[in-house]
């Protein structure tokens, strides 16, 4: 039996998730992973939904996995910073875009072109390096 989202990580969360291609969203309890040494955790205050999210909700590109919490245009307040984070502190206002991670070792990352990293992690509907699911910001 596969792992259940509400037990994958220690930080409890709530969002609105698509359960299938119908486009309908319903309440969804899940969890977010622990804040690692290079991570910033935030309380999401606002979330934009763009047409990319609609494509993902309806699986129009054939790559969606369900349940899917859309929302990759998030704004919030930093609540926790990892020990190696230098540019952010608790209380800062921040925004999160389409990607939340990159390898930081390929040529694109070395040239500050992380959005072209072949191993980036998308904000929603992707897999962390540990294999668990990323969930967006539609809370």
From TrEMBL:
One of its GO terms (molecular function) is zinc ion binding. Residues 37-125 form the Alcohol dehydrogenase-like N-terminal domain. Keywords: Metal-binding, Oxidoreductase, Zinc. It comes from the Eukaryota. Pfam families: ADH_N. The keyword Protein biosynthesis does not apply. The keyword Zinc applies. Its cofactor is Zn(2+). GO terms for biological process: lignin biosynthetic process. InterPro entries: ADH-like_N, ADH_Zn_CS, CAD-like, GroES-like_sf. Belongs to the zinc-containing alcohol dehydrogenase family. This is Alcohol dehydrogenase-like N-terminal domain-containing protein. It comes from Medicago truncatula (Barrel medic).
């Amino acid at each position: 039996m596969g792992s259940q989202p509400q037990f994958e990580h220690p930080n409890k969360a709530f969002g609105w998730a698509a359960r299938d291609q119908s486009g309908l969203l319903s309440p969804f309890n899940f969890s977010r992973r622990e804040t690692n040494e290079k991570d910033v955790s935030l309380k999401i205050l606002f979330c934009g939904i763009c047409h990319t999210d609609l494509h993902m909700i309806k699986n129009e590109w054939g790559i969606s996995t369900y349940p899917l919490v859309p929302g990759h245009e998030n704004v919030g307040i930093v609540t926790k910073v990892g020990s190696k984070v230098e540019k952010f502190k608790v209380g800062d206002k921040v925004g999160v875009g389409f990607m939340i991670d990159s390898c930081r070792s390929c040529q694109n990352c070395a040239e500050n072109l992380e959005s072209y990293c072949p191993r980036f992690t998308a904000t929603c509907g992707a897999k962390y390096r540990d294999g668990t699911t990323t969930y967006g910001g539609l809370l």
